[in-house]
Design goal:
Number of domains: 2
Structural class: mainly alpha
Helix content: 25-40%
Radius of gyration: 18 Å
Order of helices and strands: HHHHHHHHH
Number of helices: 9
Strand content: under 5%
Number of strands: 0
Bound molecules: zinc ion
Length: 235
């Protein structure tokens, strides 16, 4: 996509709960190119933008402007996807990342945050996307369905299994590597006995990311966290 147009012909709208990289993967799919090709086209037109990693955190203003023009989306809708704005009290070291050996990945894995996913959320999404909460290392259960998030495809172990479809095509819930149905996964990861308490800690953690005063309350329960085998470094 080295000879990219100044404005893309197909530009799906961002979904308010998704990661920036999730939206860009969907933009790439809509234009029938890989994310690496999409970024080459963007940089060919707008210079060295979207070069910092992970792209999902602390997006520079110049990058927002370039994406806004390239994708014909209002800047504020792109800025709203930035994890730094969503969770200003988050230590970015606690974001999931792909290993370095994915360096030449056409999906630009090392430049994105990694994600776990909820099979029930995937089953109900009209458009497959990555919920931003799935990139937080400390959240191990879906806040909606209360089931453990899956770190990879249960059948083949692919760590980036979601398939993003072109516009007007039905959503594919199949692993992009092995083709198994990610929404129908019956893998049971519920081996932890104290799951009610773990869910409660997860809920408090979600709140603490948004409201710093709650961090005081969280700080009062380190012994409880220890008994639940959750690291205090998450706080
Ligand atoms: Zn869910
Ligand atoms: Zn698979």
């Amino acid at each position: 996509m080295a000879l990219a147009p100044a404005r893309l012909p197909f530009a799906p709208q961002p979904i308010s709960t998704e990661l920036l990289s999730s939206w860009l993967l969907r933009v790439a799919a809509a234009n029938f190119v890989e994310l690496s090709e999409l970024l080459q086209g963007l940089q060919c037109r707008y210079g060295q933008v979207l070069t910092s990693a992970p792209m999902d955190y602390d997006l520079p203003a110049a990058d927002v402007q370039a994406l806004s023009q390239f994708c014909r989306i209002a800047p504020k809708r792109i800025r709203a996807l930035d994890l730094r704005l969503r969770v200003p009290h988050l230590n970015p070291a606690l974001l999931l990342r792909f290993p370095d050996h994915f360096l030449m990945c056409p999906r630009c894995s090392v430049s994105r945050v990694r994600y776990a996913f909820c099979p029930l959320c995937i089953a109900s999404q009209p458009v497959i996307h990555v919920h931003w909460e799935w990139s937080l290392a400390c959240l191990i259960r879906c806040g909606l369905h209360r089931i453990p998030l899956l770190e990879c495809c249960p059948d083949c172990g692919e760590p980036d299994p979601l398939t993003f479809s072109a516009l007007d095509l039905p959503a594919s819930r199949l692993c992009r590597s092995c083709g198994s149905d990610l929404a129908a996964s019956t893998v049971c990861l519920d081996r932890i006995q104290d799951k009610g308490n773990i869910q409660a800690v997860g809920d408090v953690y979600r709140a603490a990311l948004r409201f710093p005063l709650i961090r005081i309350v969280v700080a009062l329960i380190p012994k409880r966290l220890k008994s639940l085998e959750i690291s205090e470094s998450f706080l």
